[in-house]
Amino acid sequence: MKKRLLASALGAAVLFFVWLAAAEMVRLPIVPSPLLVASKLGEIFFGTIAIHGAYSLGRIFAGLLCAVVVGLPVGLWMGWSRRADRLLSPLVYLTYPTPKIALLPIVMLLFGIGDTSKTILLFLILVFQIVVAVRDAVRAIPEEVFYPLASLGANFRVMLWEILLPASLPKFMTAIRVAMATAISVLFFTETFGTQYGMGYFIMDAWLRVNYLEMYAGIVVLSGMGLALFGALDLAERYFCRWQKNG
Amino acid sequence: MIRVSHLSAFYDGAGKDKNERVTALEDLSLEVPKGGTCAIIGPSGCGKSTLLRILAGIASNYEGEVSVAGASVDPKALSIGFIPQNYGLLPWKTVRDNIRLSWKVKHPESPVPPDEKSMLARLGVDAELLSRFPRELSGGQQQRASLARAFLLRPDVLLMDEPFSALDAITREEMQEVFFELWRAQAVTAVIVTHDIEEALYLGQSVVVLSPAPGSVSAVLDNPYFARRETSGDFAAEKARLRSWLTGKGAPV
Questions:
Q1: Which of A80, A99, A220, B67 has a 20 to 30 A CA-CA distance from B224?
Q2: Per-residue confidence (pLDDT) for residue A247, from 0 to 100
Q3: pLDDT digit string, tens, across residues B3-46
Q4: Looking at the complex, does the CB of residue A246 fall below 8 Å from at least one CB of chain B?
């Protein structure tokens, strides 16, 4: 753990110096020094950026929550019941490879350009990943794992709680982590219109106002948000899945 | 007691003959008296494990009569202790949660088995071991946890599928002793499936020999060697000597 933190710090330091060197060499307003960006960030973080960040985070969590509430039961059901799988997998497989961002115009036509369609788009990106991962995880449980509980006459609720959920948790967490990167970039895109709040709006707005310091500060914060989400998911996975090898 | 009469079991064919019904067991009858042990041996693929799954109430694709304690097998009504080949511990649960699982499923209102402490002491499972996950245990330790879980349930019947076959010789003998100790204390009716003839002779009051697939009973032996380790004769003496070296309880001379 200590080693990982050290490696991360080293990576950040390298990035910082590369940026600094680039700024010193170019000496143009489009590549401001990281020190200037940092001081700008300190200046406007609590008054401005934090609010935009909160909006973006709120949308991510709303989308994630909906995706888990729908995706987890559907994935469990498809993994458990052959019939459910036969019924639903054509639908999942037809829609799975579609880049969800391409659905943006339709979603916006149907649900307007407000928060609803932003959340729905995040939901669409996350939910298929969750469904497929959970279904595969449940399917991969060897039959013998159920025997001791089946011989006790355990009902489905017990099987669900003691076997299906814990067995599918690692793949479930990995799916969220993988889909999260896409989700954040799509969120950025959707926030460039139909709203006056969110990191996407803030960055693009600063760009249009030719305020490069604010633009860079926004990019730094958005990257930090992504990193924090990723790290939190990583930590949660390490804790809840510590029973696994290299867990 | 366990009574099986004219049991035939089937499974669906794999591959080309998917719709063909394959017979795993054919016209099999046997009886295990209450509190007795029965060892079942037979060539691999003869349907030993299928028989055990039917006794456990997991498999239902069979014809004939199977009764435990006078009623047909019902995992909800009975307490069935089932120890599968790989010990059946759930990898995501600590040893403590694994050991409590069977009791908890049967008694959701009091999730801690009443004689847990004495059982753990008897099996030599200490606190440090309890908080580990199964993958961090040796085979013998997993088997201890599995036996603890089964016996804490105070089962009506105990079914074991090759319970000791993955263990090294010394650990196997040790675990067989542990099993006997627990079995004597609870006098539970036990069926043990094994491919090891010596183990069958040691653990089974009766030994049932199954024929190659489809399995049916080809011989039943009332076993006079039950719970006896061969201690007389040159061969046994040599074995004992080697064992004492191996376990470090004696020095080579």
A1: B67
A2: 44
A3: 888 888 887 766 555 567 788 888 888 889 999 999 999 888 78
A4: no
Q: What is the pLDDT of residue A246?
A: 56
CB-CB under 8 Å, B56 with A147: yes
**Domain coordinates of chain A in residue numbers?**
36-240
The domain in which residue B242 lies consists of 1-13+20-78+191-253
Distance, in angstroms, between B99 CA and closest chain A CA? 12
Is residue B149 domain-resident? no
> Does B253 map to a domain?
yes
3-state secondary structure of B83: strand
Residue B87's identity, in one-letter code, is: Y
Give A149→chain B minimum CA distance, Å: 7
**Residues 6+ positions from A95 with CB-CB distance below 8 Å:** A128
Which chain A residue shows the shortest CA-CA distance from B160? Answer: A148
Q: Exposed/middle/buried for A43, CB within 10 Å: 0-12, 13-18, 19+? A: middle
CATH homologous superfamily of domain A36-240? MetI-like (1.10.3720.10)
- Owner of token pair 């020094």: A33
Residue whose pair of structure tokens reads 């997993």 in the numeric block: B142
The per-residue b/e assignment along B85-106, b for 16 or more CB within 10 angstroms, e otherwise, is bbbbbbebbbbbbbbbbbbbbb
Q: Are B133 and A242 an interchain contact pair (Cβ–Cβ within 8 Å)?
A: yes
Q: What is the pLDDT of residues A110-145, one digit of tens each?
A: 998 889 999 999 999 999 999 999 999 999 999 889
pLDDT band at A50 (very low <50, low <70, confident <90, very high): very high
A144 touches chain B (CB under 8 A): yes
- Contact of A162 with chain B, judged by CB distance below 8 Å, is answered with yes
pLDDT in tens, A176-214: 998 998 899 999 999 998 889 999 999 999 999 999 999
- CATH number for the domain harbouring residue B202: 3.40.50.300
**Facing residue for B84 by CB, picked from A148, A169, A243:** A148
- Whether B180 maps to a domain, the answer reads no
CA distance B175 to A170: 34
Burial class (CB in 10 A: 0-12, 13-18, 19+), A174: middle
> What is the per-residue pLDDT across B120-158, written as a single tens digit (0 to 9) for each?
988 888 889 999 999 999 988 999 999 999 999 999 999
Confidence band of B208 (pLDDT split at 50, 70, 90): very high
Task: Indicate whether B53 belongs to any domain.
Answer: yes
Q: Is the pLDDT of residue B84 over 50?
A: yes
Residue A203 and residue A219 in contact, taking contact as beta carbons nearer than 8 Å: yes
Predicted confidence (pLDDT) at residue B252 exceeds the cutoff of 60? no
How many separate domains does chain B show?
Answer: 1
A151 to B56: CB separation less than 8 angstroms, yes or no: yes
